[in-house]
Amino acid sequence: MKNIKPMTEKKMVDKFLFEKDGQDYIRYVKEVPIFAKSIDLVKVDQQNNCISAIEFKTTKWRYAIKQVLESAIAFDFLEICVLQPRTEECQKLIINECERNGIGLFFIDAAKQIIEHIVEPIQCNNVWEIQRLQILQYLEREI
């Protein structure tokens, strides 16, 4: 039997970037500072001038939701990426919570190494434009 190493948040981000980076007009920046924290990954849609915060968690999906909601004031879209739960009941719980909060959701199947986009995010409507512009300025220096 093949020995599978546990997936860390760093491995999740790297897997996500391997699959998603290189798309037209979409760029990604890791560990973007906001307030006294940082967002694991920020997606920049240069064509539509939109920015999305993406938080990754191997466990504690509720904490990932809490983290992105705390940064909602500065981003156009919020998303989380978590390891796919084993039970359908837990999957539905996460899906419902993300839909209720307008948060996009990605599941990573660690065994199959597959990423699925399960829930599309809804655009945030209470964005503080000054903070959003600060994030965009930071991203311009990093891209």
- Helicity level, as a percent range? 25-40%
Q: In CATH terms, what is the fold-level topology? A: Trna Endonuclease, Chain: A, domain 1
Q: What sort of overall outline do the alpha carbons produce when their principal axes are compared?
A: globular
- Measured on Cα atoms, how large is the radius of gyration? 15 Å
CATH class: Alpha Beta
Task: Please supply descriptive tags for the structure shown above.
Trna Endonuclease, Chain: A, domain 1; 143 residues; globular; 4 helices; single chain; alpha/beta; 31% strand
Mind explaining what this structure looks like?
The chain has 143 residues and is an alpha/beta fold. The chain has helices at residues 9-20, 61-70, 88-101, 129-142, and strands spanning 26-34, 37-45, 50-57, 77-83, 104-109, 114-119. 35% of the residues lie in helices and 31% in strands. The mean pLDDT is 90.
